[in-house]
Amino acid sequence: MHLTFRQIEVFNAVARLQNYTRAAENLHMSQPAVSMQIKQLEESVGLPLFEQVGKKIHLTDAGRYMHEYGRHFADLLEEADVVFEALKGVERGRLSISVATTASHFATRLLAEFTKRNTGITISLDITNRESLRKQLENNEPDLVIMGQPPEGVDVEADVFMDNPLVMIAPAGHVLTEQQNIALSAIENESFVVREPGSGTRGAIERFFARNDVNFKTGIEMTSNEAIKQAVEAGLGLGIVSIHTLELELETGRLQILDVHDFPILRHWYIMQRKGKRLSPAAQAFKTFVLEQAKDFIRLP
Ligand code: PGA
């Protein structure tokens, strides 16, 4: 049999997601390229691995065997990677970290401090929202993930390292900035500039208002905290953001935190890896650094 690791990697993704288009997105490939890899793999096995029933694809008997072997291959490769990373030690290791959009405001500062102490480590940082982090953990992709709460439905080893208060913000001069202990009912008529569905911040805000039985009017949706702050400043609505995104705007007085009853919404930051994952020395060193020292380098406004 002449098969390649790439074909197996593509096969594993299609088998897991049962969908060529989603597998292609996941692997950053085009769909025809994915189909081609599967076709070549089927040719070298000499049997079809998938069958189409209606719009869905299913594994054939041969496909189920291949899936079993495919997972073993992937586990073995991962194990080999961990061994080689361990041999390189902390001095020359590689580290792949994925963080929630909101955490990027301090993650870069942490990485800067960490690399000052460990100059040989090569780091790759992915910044994305909560939903996409959940998928990455499910696929065991990054070494470590920093996000606002461990995701549902994925087994992870998560440790909390810092508070993440969500505050309500208004532009300087807004009438509500003059008031104290504003009742939640008083903001029912305000419209909010919000993050996209799939964002941890957005989820936490929606749960908070539902719990308090208060109507929450969403206006424009944005995928970036920076854009939300600019929109609030421009008068497009109020905002609710993590205090970690705010340093500069509060210093310059462009935005103000409103004194709203039951605010801030208290969340926490967690660092985590998929359960059972063996951390390389570089990843372990970073995790220890975050747990023990992150707070010293992240200044709250
Ligand atoms: P977000 O993440 O950037 O997706 O809102 C923060 C979080 O996980 O709470």
Can you walk me through this structure?
The chain has 301 residues and is of the alpha/beta class. The protein has ten helices and eleven strands. The strands form two sheets. Strands 3, 4, 5, 6, 7, 8, 9, 10 and 11 form a nine-stranded mixed sheet that branches. The protein has a two-stranded antiparallel ribbon with strand order 1-2. Strand 1 and strand 2 form a beta hairpin. It is globular and about 75 Å long. 2-phosphoglycolic acid binds next to helix 7.
Draw up the topology in text.
Elements: H1 5-17, H2 20-27, H3 31-45, E1 50-53, E2 56-59, H4 61-88, E3 94-100, H5 104-117, E4 122-128, H6 130-138, E5 144-147, E6 156-171, E7 191-195, H7 200-211, E8 217-222, H8 225-233, E9 238-242, H9 247-251, E10 255-257, E11 265-274, H10 281-297
Parallel strand pairs: 3-4, 3-5, 7-8, 7-9
Antiparallel strand pairs: 1-2, 5-11, 6-9, 6-10, 6-11
Helix pairs in contact: 1-2, 1-3, 1-4, 2-3, 5-10
The chain binds 2-phosphoglycolic acid.
